[in-house]
Amino acid sequence: MRRITWFQRGSALLCCGALGFLGLHAHDRTAQTTIPVLQVHGDSIVYATLSELEEAADIIAFVRPVTPFLGREHVNSFYSDGAIQDFYTKSRVDMLKTFKDVNGAVGAARTFEMIEPVGLVEQGSRRLKLQIEGYSETESGKTYLVFLKSNGLGGYSVINMNNGKIISDKTQEIAQDVEEIGIDGLKLRAEARGRYRL
Of 39, 81, 121, 124, which sees the most CB atoms within 10 A? Predict the structure, then answer.
């Protein structure tokens, strides 16, 4: 495993001033709107193999997001000067099958709230989507294999960025650049598809 940056304040500071001025756009399929996107670097641990990822995860499960991205709870905190300090999205998911539940957080629950490293900042009628290391949010109605870890504050976050959530239908998987997923990520996904019968 290797370390890469997670929430660098310098990158996040650009977020507030970037509303409406970005040339990059993300398409929210549910709302049929275009939202500017800002890529932010941050601190996280990257697990190169499936066994490392499985060992690190507190929860491994098949889930299906209940609510479209724009309807989810987007949590943002700001410094006193208005710059973004932290952001994430709470995604309510149906628990379809649980493979690992170290702390018993899922138990017999049919739904669960997971945290994704993507956010939405709204200022008046203007919106900006913030993505950590190119992470793309889960889509409602689709099934994913997710690897979650306790954040120590009562929540469970997707770990390993895009390689910590794998869509069940390979034909629906968005083609991602090898640079973004990496060769190790491609191997990890292939191994996970075999082991969890995706």
Answer: 121
